[in-house]
Amino acid sequence: MLKSWRMVQRTFWLKLVEKGWKRRSVIWLSGVRRVGKTFLCQSIPGVEYFDCEMPRFRRRLEDPEDFLEKVKKKRIVLDEIHRLPNPSELLKLAADHFPSVEIIATGSSTLQASSRFRDTLVGRKAEIWLTPMMSQDLVDFGSEDLRHRFLRGGLPPFFMNPGLPEKEFQEWIDSFWARDIQELFRLERRYSFQRFLELLFVQSGGLFEATRFARPCEVSRGTISNYLAVLNSTWAVHVIRPYSTHRSVEITAAPKVYGFDTGFVCHFRGWYPLRDDDLGVLWEHWILNEMHSQLQTPRIHYWRDKKGHEVDFILALRNKKPIAIECKWTAGHFDLVNLKAFRHHYPDGPNWVICHDVDREYTRSFDKIKVDFLGLPGLTRRIQSLLARR
């Protein structure tokens, strides 16, 4: 049974915040619009909340030193901090001179992407990327129905909507343009930008070539590349680069681009109701979202050779052999041919096939290639084990 949105404690993310504060007194919390940054912050025990969109709060923050000396609590939230004229000044002062004040500051983009930040606070902050709802969130929200999650997506207000939030999807696009893109990047040509984003949702998970989008969006190839960089920095899309050691047989340049959320993918592809044939693509998006949540990095790759063999995802962690990951809605759909082509060039490293219908993980050998079949919990355990050893 779905819980009331305001009652939910997002346990995975609350633990991540506590871990972040153990490393640094300042946390930068980013994520797309309406992903739940504000409610997550307000659910942290013992915090004092400041909404930087409110003029009365901005006036209090005009003298950062005086503000930090007079805060009532030692844990504060500075929501939408990019509204301040020089937000990095306050955070830098807090990190250097008020380390007893624990701060969580929120924004929709990566810190490096916003022109409002004159200092990226290297070495002074911990970063948390709040993704759309992941596996533990489904438990916390009281519904582990994946079809519901796929169709409505992982923005909590949309997920909680009893009906299909079709109107809300378009309203999100309009708000994203007005409040994130215009305020932070001041782009022009609203139609072209929104058309490009919609086309990316339609083609989500496919190989990206800027020239293919220039004509329907009525802009140059260079503008398309700029749009993609902006969307990537605001977490609206994920650019997945090819894994390669620059071998002559591999794709080395063309990225794959995924839309940030399954609900938007379904909406712009017209996938309602969901068919069985749709589930494999959405499962792949779901696995990518889970890995992003757990790893807290967008640096995940794919692999493809010039003969068309492709492995969904490659984890290339420092000082470790590449992990090849295939996503299959059912284990019966697995075909060795792509993994075999990859391991011909990279013979060492784990091979994971992540399947919806695997309750207990197992291992099979195919032509001397060992393959582990895992469910989503098995993937989570293995990622956590990798992180613990780093």
What do you see in this structure?
It is built from 16 helices and 14 strands. A hairpin with a 7-residue loop joins strand 10 (310-315) and strand 11. The radius of gyration is 22 Å and the shape is globular. It has 390 residues and is an alpha/beta fold. The strands form two sheets. The chain has a nine-stranded mixed beta sheet with strand order 6-8-7-9-10-11-12-14-13, with helices on both faces. A five-stranded parallel beta sheet has the order 2-3-4-1-5.
Task: Give the overall pLDDT as a whole number.
Answer: 92
Total beta strand runs = 14
The gyration radius over C-alpha positions equals 22 Å
- Compressed to H and E, one letter per element, the order equals HEHEHHEHEEHHHHHEHHEEHHEEEHEEEH
List keywords for this structure.
globular, 9-stranded mixed β-sheet, alpha/beta, 14 strands, 390 residues
What's the structural blueprint in terms of helices and strands?
Layout: H1 11-23, E1 26-30, H2 37-42, E2 48-51, H3 55-60, H4 64-70, E3 75-79, H5 87-97, E4 102-107, E5 125-129, H6 135-141, H7 146-152, H8 156-159, H9 166-184, H10 190-202, E6 206-207, H11 210-217, H12 221-233, E7 237-242, E8 256-259, H13 262-269, H14 279-295, E9 301-304, E10 310-315, E11 323-328, H15 337-345, E12 351-355, E13 362-366, E14 369-374, H16 376-388
Parallel strand pairs: 1-4, 1-5, 2-3, 3-4, 7-9, 11-12, 12-14
Antiparallel strand pairs: 6-8, 7-8, 9-10, 10-11, 13-14
Helix pairs in contact: 7-13, 10-13, 11-12, 14-16
Please provide a brief summary of the model:
The protein is α/β, with parallel strands linked by helices. It is built from 16 helices and 14 strands.
